[in-house]
Automatic annotation (TrEMBL):
Stored Gene3D superfamilies: Nucleoside Triphosphate Pyrophosphohydrolase
Protein name, as recorded: ADP-ribose pyrophosphatase
Cofactor: Mg(2+)
SUPFAM superfamilies: Nudix (SSF55811)
Pfam families: NUDIX
Keyword Hydrolase (UniProt): yes
Superkingdom field: Archaea
Domain Nudix hydrolase: 40-208
Region (Disordered) residue spans: 80-128
Molecular function in Gene Ontology: hydrolase activity
């Protein structure tokens, strides 16, 4: 069976500033055509952060589901300034020609390598920023765990999971729509807390991946 279904038409029907929505009309393997509707969102990062035997959660109200949720730190992977992208292109050219290129801010090659898109932050950089903004913790070590598509039947949305440790307290810098409190949960209780209704998919995924990779 073919894994490539021809796209007959692709249409964006609305743009909200937060996500776009539309449909692709595709030719199915039997020759028939069907509209497949989608919503396209920017990629997001989820941070499993551990400090002194506790997992760092945030407790916040989610208007979308009208529920109070205990979640891991998460947020959008933002677009990078144009000059940073140009620096990357220059470093890539230097490496290709046998030269050397320096890295800043303590990011390792692995940290900086995994991006949802060349124009956006790495998952590690986004995770550091979101953790600092939402909780006031600065991560000394940040490890990339996984990247995957979410809700593939309806969303065009990638999610990356990172693990943060060696945390140092700093000041929070909340967005104007963030009203949340920081909660600490012992590692051995974290998954039970995450599974309590209303359970959050990203929080459960993050904890299970961190545990599977030996971080918890």
């Amino acid at each position: 069976m073919s894994h490539d279904w021809p796209v007959v038409e692709s249409r964006t029907e609305y743009e909200t500033g937060w996500y776009d929505g539309g449909y692709d009309r595709v030719e199915q393997p039997d020759g028939s055509e069907k509209n497949y509707y989608w919503a396209a969102l920017p990629p997001a990062v989820v941070v499993v952060a551990v400090d002194d035997g506790d997992v760092v959660f945030v407790d916040q109200y989610r208007p979308t589901i009208r529920e109070q949720c205990m979640e891991l730190v998460a947020g959008i992977v933002e677009e990078r300034p144009v000059d940073e992208r140009e620096d990357d292109q220059r470093e890539s050219s230097e490496r290709a020609s046998g030269g050397t290129a320096s890295r800043e801010d303590g990011d390792t090659e692995d940290d900086d390598a995994i991006r949802p898109h060349p124009t956006r932050e790495s998952y590690a950089a986004a995770g550091r920023r979101e953790l600092r903004e939402e909780t006031g913790f600065e991560a000394g070590e940040m490890h990339f765990l996984e990247e995957f598509w979410t809700a593939t039947g309806v969303l065009r949305h990638k999610r990356g999971i990172v693990f943060a440790e060696d945390l140092t307290p700093t000041e929070r810098d909340l967005d104007d729509n963030e009203f949340l409190t920081v909660e600490r949960v012992p590692v051995e209780e974290a998954l039970d807390v995450a599974r309590a209704p209303p359970a959050n998919d990203a929080t459960i995924e993050g904890l299970l991946l961190a545990e599977a990779d030996g971080h918890l």
